[in-house]
Amino acid sequence: MSNDTQLSLFNESSFNQKDLIPTDSKIPIPADTYPTIDDLAQHCRICQRCELGKTRTHAVVGRGNLQATIMIIGEAPGQQEDETGLPFVGKSGQLLDKILASVELNTDNDVYICNIVKCRPPENRVPTLDEMAACKPYLLEQIRLVNPKIILLTGATAVKGVTGDKRPITKIRGQWLEWSGRLCMPIFHPSYLLRNPAKEKGKPKWLMWQDIQAVRAKFDEIRNHG
Ligand code: URA
């Protein structure tokens, strides 16, 4: 063996994307497949595990701090997200950023944002159960790699996609639950708040304000006591 070949055995990345092209949703993607989010994103960009791969412009993987304490999981990319390749950059994303800013949280430091499915469903329809299942291994790998202490699930589809709980979001929002050893809170989807902007006590925006303050308090508790 030449010196160069011997030295190449010291290379850090053994990830070979050609060995792992997930063109069939029945082929599992086991835990620990991706060394980094970049490796995962490479796969998402060529993924055809479901029909959404045929119509996407960009796969939308995530944005924010890769070491964030809080991960926010939405439903699916919309038009602007499909065009830019970034989650929550349209109207609901702008509102989400404002909600975070109201308790001094942001994606530069504290938050990483992603979705249940990485590709835009046509006409912004809700992703099907099969689409969510085909994409779930990517989400599980994102959660493993970012390793957030708190997960916020925005809207009923995100709750169903992660935990399987089918209850309406109005019944479960604001309640902490444990899923896979992680602390999660279902919250309203920002698009619901855009459609229901009432702020009076007990109304959607007021409820969101209670929830995000509870999130901030838990964030501080974790930061101060581990
Ligand atoms: N709605 C979502 O659930 N996710 C996005 O990325 C944008 C809008």
From TrEMBL:
Keyword DNA repair: yes
Catalytic activity: Hydrolyzes single-stranded DNA or mismatched double-stranded DNA and polynucleotides, releasing free uracil
UniProt xrefs under SUPFAM superfamilies: Uracil-DNA glycosylase-like (SSF52141)
InterPro entries linked: UDG_Type-4/5 (IPR051536), Ura-DNA_glyco_family4 (IPR005273), Uracil-DNA_glycosylase-like (IPR005122), Uracil-DNA_glycosylase-like_sf (IPR036895)
Domain Uracil-DNA glycosylase-like: 61-213
Pfam families in alphabetical order: UDG (PF03167)
Database matches in CDD domains: UDG-F4_TTUDGA_SPO1dp_like
GO BP annotations, alphabetical order: DNA repair
Top-rank lineage group of the source organism: Bacteria
SMART domains: UDG, UreE_C
Gene Ontology molecular functions: 4 iron, 4 sulfur cluster binding; metal ion binding; uracil DNA N-glycosylase activity
Record's protein name: Type-4 uracil-DNA glycosylase
